[in-house]
Amino acid sequence: MIRTLWAFAAMTAATVWYGGIAIVDSLFEPRVEFYIRLTRGWARTILRASDTPVVAHGLENVKAGRPQVIVSNHVSWYDIFAIAGILPVPFHFVAKKELEKIPLFGRAWKTAGHISIDRSNRQKAVESLRHAGMEIRARNSAVIIFPEGTRSRTGRMQPFKKGAFMLAAEAGVPIVPTVVVGSFDIMRPDDWRIHPRTIHVYFGEPISEEPGETVEQLMGRVRDRMAAMLEEVEALPPLD
Asked: How far apart are CA 59 and CA 52, in angstroms?
């Protein structure tokens, strides 16, 4: 109980502190790299307060100075903190537009350059994805997308949506299949308590679109690879 209260207090304080800095800074001369550092600091503060260390595997597959789409499974809010806390390259998240409605967080999210998708309007969603493609090509950065669209309530991968794969195909950039393990047990659905665990993040070898391949086929290849990565992890001895 004490750990949970401390973690929630830290989340609130970190959001106010880092979000406030981002919003104030944006009134002068916006600095994308600075906002990425703020996002990373925000995530690491929450991870430390929750006693949830993160171990990265395969970071060599995330290439610096190259545009890329990082596609990850999604079982917990802690997936976001874990990936943001360990990525050594510039990055932006792509997520549902509803996040913009969260007080302070929403404004800081937009200020930091993270990209919102309006799922209720297909045209606007496509425009947002095209904007994301231009951003990663212009800045040689990474875009992080959870293609399931929402957190899994079972810990198992759900069906994928096509947005991430349309983005990668149109922008002509590789996809880094990524799986997060251990975060589901930190805060299970319908349980607001935090249970400290070590989170492991596995970055697989990049996958590029093949000549003549459809978006659906690309999506299937990436999902199959992520499923295989999860099976390989489950076959290992229990992780710390």
From this structure: 19
- For residue 28, being part of any structural domain is answered with yes
| Structural domain contains residue 240 | no
Extract the tokens encoding 119.
């799922």
CA distances (Å), origin 168, targets 16, 70, 130, 197, 230: 33, 10, 10, 33, 22
Report d(CA 71, CA 92) in Å as an integer.
12
DSSP H helical ranges for the chain: 2-26, 32-49, 77-86, 105-111, 122-139, 163-171, 215-234
Taking only the tens place, the pLDDT of each residue in 135-150 is: 777 778 889 999 998 8
* pLDDT tens digits for range 152-188: 888 889 999 888 898 888 888 899 999 999 999 998 8
Supply the CATH number for residue 54's domain: 3.40.1130.10
At 21, list the tokens. 């800095």
Task: Please give the tally of structural domains in the chain.
Answer: 1
> Which domain range does residue 201 map to?
2-234
Neighbours of 146 (CB within 10 A): 27
